[in-house]
């Protein structure tokens, strides 16, 4: 979710904030370690999870970010018959206003 709600990157840049990517990856690794690494499981009182459950958790956790990304790229009507889009194609076409 953190990657989906971040500010849009300026044109021509590939990675706006590599620190955010590192923080999200480290957070995910520590959360998975809490259910896979024996001493951490004992310390935190968690039970081991199987691969199928971990995959299901990963899929479900990606849904809010995916929904937000899709909502950002969908044109929204402003009430005047023109749709407003953020980013996207270079020439959105007639009846579409760029923010």
Query: Low-confidence stretches at least 5 residues in length (pLDDT < 50)?
Result: none
Beta strand count: 3
Biggest sheet strand order reads 1-2-3
Give the helix proportion (percent range).
40-55%
Radius of gyration: 20 Å
End-to-end CA span: 23 Å
Order of helices and strands: HHHHEEE
Class by SSE composition: mainly alpha
* Shape type: elongated
Biggest sheet layout? 3 strands, mixed
Instruction: Tell me the number of helical segments per DSSP (H or I, 4 or more residues long).
Output: 4
Strand fraction band? 5-15%
Describe the overall structure.
This protein is mainly alpha-helical and 99 residues long. It starts with a helix and ends with a strand. It has 4 helices and 3 strands. It has a 3-stranded mixed beta sheet with strand order 1-2-3, with no helix packed on it. Strand 1 (76-77) and strand 2 form a beta hairpin.
Write a concise synopsis of the structure shown.
With 99 residues, this protein is mainly α. It has helices at 2-5, 18-36, 38-44, 51-73; strands at 76-77, 83-85, 96-98.
